[in-house]
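user: can you give me the structure for this one chain? tokens are fine.
assistant: on it. calling the predictor now.
[tool input]
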Amino acid sequence: MTLDPDHSFPYFNLAASYIYRDRLGEARATLERAAERNIDLPELFVARFQIAFLENNQTEMDRVAALAHERKDWAADWVTDQQAAVLAYSGHLQLARGKSRRVVDLVRQAGRRDGAAQHEAAIAVREALYGNANDARQSAARVLELSTDRDAQYGAALALALAGDSARSQKLADDLGMRFPEDTLVRFSYLPALRALLALNRHEPSTAIELLEAAAPYELGYEGANSVGFGGSLYPIYVRGLAYLAAHQGADAAREFQKILDHRGIVVTDPIGALAHLQLGRAFALAGVRSKAKSAYNDFLTLWKDADVEIPILKDAKAEFARLQ
């Protein structure tokens, strides 16, 4: 059937708004109403998959993925992207890489270079967060070969900053500022997060915290336009938590990372949702609250109990947890 966007997208937007607020029953009911009206957007498959993930329902995730792969539209690409994100969320990085690479290749071959760049940016940020700096830099370079799309370029710049490549990240941040001087996301989320990370790379945590003040009124908003590729929601909060850790302000850092854990519907499958457990453990350890630190580390290590053992951040987490015993 031919879909009228004016009658189709409101269902996705409403379902998504419920997901962001962790009102999953209402999100599911909205999708059921859409199904009753034979509304069958690819985006609705992503919403169904995300609900299943937030409910830890692997059977439903598999069912939605199977249905998406039977289609001849973007649903399969988008759900495969989410499958990769779920694998990475629990530390199955090698498997995630394979799925993500397949998505990038398929989207690029379809001529959607901006989309391919956004998916590549998600890979770059993930690798940087997990401590694979060289892989992050290589993925960031592939992003920029594909497109200068606003969100993809932000992801590349973020990955480079996290990987310690401040010079290239600064250049991309400056370019975003010049190209999108009035853009709300760029002004109040992307640039504050990037500039704060660059300040942290210069060992200036107090400057980083000040730079993130501009993001505060907007930082609990959802930023992923299509729920796929690199979305970047809550990154100013995550970076502020890192800044407080660098400033040895454990209690303040714990407050920031707890915000991420309290808003799973906004973070969904983004890797900072998993890493917030580890960073919370570090924050409590810094604050001298050993029992809470051990609990947070345990939450992370339980989530990553079957993770790829060579991931740098996992090695660090295990060593840090051992010292708490």
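assistant: here you go. Residues 1-7 have pLDDT under 50 and may be disordered. Residues 1-88 form one domain.
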